[in-house]
Amino acid sequence: MNGPNGEKTKKIGGVTLDYSKYPGEDYYCDGNVEDEILDIVRNNDREKFPEIISSRKDWATLYHLSPARGNIVRWIPMNGTEKVLEIGAGPGAITETLSSMAGEVECVDLSAKRSEINATRNKDRDNITIHVGNFVDVEPTLADDFDYIFLIGVFEYAGSYMDSAAPFHDELLRILPHLKKGGRIVIAIENRLGLKYFAGAREDHTGRYFDGIESYENSGMSVRTFSRAGLERIFVDCGITDYSFYYPYPDYKFTSEVYSDGRLPKASELTDNIRNFDRDRLLLFDEKAAYSGIVGDGLFPQFSNSYEVVIGPPLPVEYTKFSTERSPEYRIMTGVIKDSDGKRRVVKTPLTAQAEHHTARMEDSYRKLSDRYGSRTNALKICPCRIDSRKRAVFDYIEGRTLETMLDKCLAGNDMENFLKLTDKYLELVGTNSGSSASDGDMTFANIMINGLNWTAIDYEWEEDRSIPARDMLARALTVYVREDPKRSKQIIPAIKQHYGISDDDIAAAAEEEKALQIKVSGNSIPLSAQRNDYGTKVIVPGEIIAEDPALRETAAKEDEARRNEETKEVSLTSVQVYYDSGKGFSEEESFFLKERYADEGCISFEINVPENVKTLRIDPALCPCFAMVREAAFGRADTSAITKLMRFNGSMDRSGVVVFTTDDPCFTWDMKRMRRAAMVHGDAKIKMTLQMCGMPSTMARRAEKGECR
Question: How far apart are the two ends of the chain, measured CA to CA in Å?
């Protein structure tokens, strides 16, 4: 067979497309969206993909172009010489990552259009060959010496392309001979009994509620996912006895953490559960609360939303966490790895060239903090760290229980006496040699490991060359502790305030410090959990669909909208919010968050419609103290100069036009009557604007507010 234009093979950059088994037409197509994705990858480097995803805000662009897709394979150890086969490569989201890790990558995909997208986005790679055609036709031509064979979101479709009464068994049996001795098959797939499906998420493939839970009895489709036990039955039937289960969280599509049977999650870690980017979902119960009992009873492997199964020799990795939503200079991957001698290590790997400096300084931080805290018997110990030849920061693995776990145990038993004894001990240890110029403001309760009398700081990624008072470190640790589970605050805040004399101002200051750190770490990156609201999908609470009274339905809808707005405020500290005052003053009901996000150099450009009845326009450049300025603006005949002259703000402006906001609620306002007169416009009109913003650390904001900064 030949390709779409009659060619037997084709080169796009360094990528080879092989059409020898192409059937002559694409039997699977997502329609015009594939042409749009192809146009994007033809005209943009992959570094631009996050910006494009942010501006388009549609599921197909996110799914096919997000760099987070590669996390599902990024954690697998490779040395750059491996020969890899990817079955069902599609538009190449996984190919992109595999080709950066392995020596040689061969792909199989039925769609010529999708294969062209794959080749185009990866045209700068010279180690990729894409076989275009049905797997059953291509398979006999494949080699038998692959180190890895990947089926990422593919195994469940075996019934669609395998002409067999037992397609899932037969697919595995056809794949196995293509592995070299000691090779591995990696399968990523949804769990049909994943907790999200019980809680009200639609089945990912059929779009039906509870379809997998009901064993697809009414779906009428050939796609199938499996429980853990169901997958294991298939493996045993195929004579496969050597396999390991891993648990991508929240799922395999956009993985932020990978757990294993050697390192299962703690309930407090499972907080990112609302992930419906592509369609609406129900919210029948609180998944985080449900996980608490599931994890406590050892049932997480049965209810994990996704599985990643490694068939073949076990991998040395027990746990991985991806910090890929950070600014490039802080983007790392943290893994718990077991050496050949069975000894565990914690390894932090830079994922960008910019992040190499960040990991390199961790060894210096270890020495500085060790010098501060010393080595006496009852001192706070610092987990040893060294930088290896691959520029990774390698830490000893410290056994024990985290201080966070021990505090939770006290709360569960309503034992505030021992809770305060533990925080007293924390305050004593972290305050040692308080005049030292080395401090770790991120010494949270989860970063302290306790084993008998030994207290060890296991993570000091954000060590600073300044002195931080112990009380400030305690206040921030408590702030983080409460933020991760608000239920904790009801029990501890009153007792903590009384015991330590911590004021509301102290708590507010600690919260501001936390905000400042998050802004520093994330840069202009917006977490997926914050972007979800922008995709237009709803989380439907039961009252919204069962209430017969229209007033009740309206109330439920407003509550859901308020909850979504609060989620956005909490996570997206640098969102731009717009208010319209139509005569009743500013209110949340007459406000909205811009879909646009700050990009390079902290700039954001947008266009909004201002209805004729709006008396005052208000634009909040951020939800925290900041420096901000209007770079460009246009409204009718009014240019930037005219618009800034009519602008009012609750900060102070310097001669360059930069406004210093020391408040959590910074805002620019315009009297629209005066604006319309100056712009010579009538009726509804659009205003275009480019803002530039830089977040301000809370300590600087407080000093500026008191007039201490000049």
Answer: 74
